[in-house]
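Course assignment 3, question 2. Fill in each field.
Student: A.L.
Task: Predict the tertiary structure for the chain below.
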Amino acid sequence: ISESLTQHESNAVADWLVIAAANGNTFEKRYTGQSQITGPLKHEQAKVESQLNNLTKKMLTRIVTDQVLINFLQGQ
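Answer field:
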């Protein structure tokens, strides 16, 4: 979070590596995401927490809907 007298900016970056093993095979894939919020005056902790929660949801959704990962886990 960077702040000045008149505004703030919060940049969040996620970089997750998923490794799955099944039937002697290994699947490995990196998932990345980012989020940026800006606003007047000082930052509000609740807004930053919401930013991080939303980024986490976005990343998890991307992982659990990745058809390549799903196929690997189903043994296809």
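Instructor remarks: Strands lie at 2-3, 7-22, 25-40. The CA atoms of residues 22 and 65 lie 18 Å apart.
Grade: pending
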